[in-house]
Amino acid sequence: MKARALSLVALLLALAACRGGLLDGPAGPSGHDPRRPTDPTDPTDPGHAAVASVRRLSVHELRNSIATVFGVESDAIDRVPPDRRDFVFDRIAQSQTASAVHIEAFGALGRAVAESMITSGALSSRVPACPAEILPPAAASATTRYPGGGMALAPTWAVHTATSGRVYLQYPEEATLTVSHGFPSAGRYRFTAELDPNVAVNVVVSVDGRAITTWSLGPSSPPQTVELEHAGGTAILELRVTGLQSGLMYVDGASVEGPLDPGAARTAERRACAEGFVDTIAPLAWRRPLRVEDRARLLALYDEAGEFRDGFRMIVEAIVESPRHLYLVEIGEPVADREGHHALDDWELASRLSYLACESPPDAMLRADAARHALRDPEVLASHAARLFGSECAEATVVRFFEQWLGLDRLPEVNRDPTIYPEWNDDLRRALREDASRFFVEMVFRERAGLDALYTARRAWPSAQVAAIYGVESADGSEVALPEARAGLLTLPALMAVHAKPYETSPVHRGVFVVERLLCQHLPPPPAELDIVPPVFDPSATTRERWSRHSSDSSCSYCHRLIDPVGFAMEDFDAIGRHRTMEAGEPIDARGGAPALGVGDGSIEGTRALAEAIASSELAADCFARQWTRFGLGRLEDEGDEATITTVRDALRTSAIDAMVALTRTYAFTHRVEPITEGE
Among positive and negative, which fits the CA dihedral 437, 441, 442, 448? Predict the structure, then answer.
């Protein structure tokens, strides 16, 4: 097992070193690069596929995969280090790492999954060859010993200790010996008592006051044993002894063994269970048919263990920890007459589509078409894309995309000064996040909205708690018309709250968010020598006044002229997303602009006007397409992806969901390309 762990470490670290590609980077000195398209406007041109991803599943995807394949959930997954978000999303290959901590966490996860499958009954329900009656009990068998001196003996006047250290009872008409024992799970247990009387005695054994057997003992009696069923939990085991009024009895101790394994002798059936598990689960976890040699290696682990629980654990660990499970490794098959080009095979396409739409392994329908080699047919692949993007799992994926893109997943960590915002609490955080999720599901899936509608929609579905923030009446989450100042995603209370400070709004944070996240414009970092000190909070001055003085500094002005007009236009909403008209006794000045869109400062007033300007811009459409392409392909784009992004952007004119599905029709989605250097 140690050698296998070391080889896994080496392989995972090697994969992590790829930083997102089997062969990342530009072509060599010859300049020959098969990614360069012949026709830059044609998304199906083979040159538009970028270098393949070798992408580790995100923690979220891994959690889904464990639940889908193994049928269990485990807190052990919380030991896996959080995914880095260097590039907004948690599934971008270029920001992923693999460390010794990852390896340890994956091992712990495998062990926990194995144990949980036995204890929860998931093994029996998932694998017909593993009926419950042949499996070991939920908890591993163990023996707990209680020495005589560690038992409660009564009456106390009759308790003595010999010079040898042995405890004994002398002359009581009746004596009791009790222990409190914790039974780890339901099952059958063996209770043994080591008693040595010098006269004939009777011993009544009871569990929580219920007699289960009687022993008749005399001098030199062997240890006495009784088996009992228990549902699990703590119980009082009592021995009531009579007949000692003229004698004594040494009490050497007692023990509880169990839960006992009634199926231990059914070795052939358990071997068949191991085979059935490997044949059923390994192909699901590794997302392709199981090779004969891999099947043999997995079963060899079971055979080497010698005991079902250990052997089963080793199989599960090997499956869970395998890079075939933890990574999406896409190899493909060479494309004729296209050096370096590889068409993803059916199983790779099934995984790529399933993890795009549902962030989980392929379902039975995808696997069936992969098995009959049908997924390379564009019409078949398109039908599955339409089917999956119409499912509940796709709704969850799209909500996660918006949450990460807009930063809304940080809402649970957002705090507010209770003296300024007394209504801010965990319930409101949760309600604001649910409100945003409802907005995206309704707009993207129910109304099939395009990007312009996402920015300009004049309706929402708030709960009663969030309705108070919106300034509308609603008690049941039904659709309501928004007040004049609100429109679309930019005025979502959740978004406004995330991009603010604990005690006030933040025009800079909001401006940076719009420029970088919604318009995909690069802002250079501030000079290294610049000491960035935000203006001190002053309740007697407006936020705009304080930040205007700060931004007038010549060393800050270059970036702030791009940021501040955007942030100032959003000043009509406070730090928890309520619309406001006054601050510090002064009317709110929400005049601003959007320099990146060519809209000068002062030309826009208020967040709704800003949202309308963004909605009609090509930059916003291009940025949405770029962000979805990154999320969908699990990597950053390169020059070969421009036509792919164009395809997504063009479909966005119809609806956001059409744009999302459009990605699956591109050459970049169905192929990978390796750069070829001179001499290869």
Answer: positive
Helix residue spans in 407-485 (DSSP H) = 426-441, 451-456, 464-470
Decide if 98 contacts 16 (C-beta within 8 A): yes
Helix or strand run (H / E) with residue 646: helix 642-652
Alpha-carbon distance of 362 to 667, in angstroms, equals 21
Give the residue among 160, 117, 309 at the shortest CA–CA distance from 248: 160
Q: Where are the alpha helices (DSSP H) in 499-581?
A: 507-513, 543-551, 557-569
CA distances from 417 to 186, 420, 425, 427, 470 (A): 50, 6, 11, 16, 20
Q: Which residues pair with 236 in a beta bridge?
A: 180
Q: How far apart are alpha carbons 489 and 304 in whole angstroms?
A: 58
Q: Predicted confidence band at 486 (pLDDT cuts at 50, 70, 90)?
A: very high
Residues in the chain: 680
pLDDT of res. 455 = 98
Q: How far apart are CA 467 and CA 472, in angstroms?
A: 5
Supply the pLDDT for residue 533: 67
CA distance 609 to 619: 16
Read off the pLDDT band of 530 (50, 70, 90): low
Q: Residue 537 — pLDDT band, cuts 50, 70, 90? A: confident
Contacts of 188 (CB under 8 A, 6+ apart): 137, 227, 228, 229, 258, 259, 260, 262
Q: 465, 466, 468, 412: which is closest to 436 by C-alpha?
A: 466
Q: Which amino acid is at 175?
A: A
- Tokens 């995909």 belong to 520
Distances (CA, A) of 3 to 7, 9, 10, 297, 325: 6, 10, 11, 14, 19
Three-state SS for 601? strand
pLDDT digits (tens, 9 = 90+) for 23-78: 232 222 222 333 344 443 343 444 444 444 589 999 999 999 999 999 999 999 99
Pairing, β 174-183 against β 480-481: unpaired
pTM of the model: 0.86
* DSSP element (H, E) containing 83: none
**Please, which pLDDT band fits residue 131 given cuts at 50, 70 and 90?**
very high
Determine contact, residues 363/351, Cβ cutoff 8 Å.
no
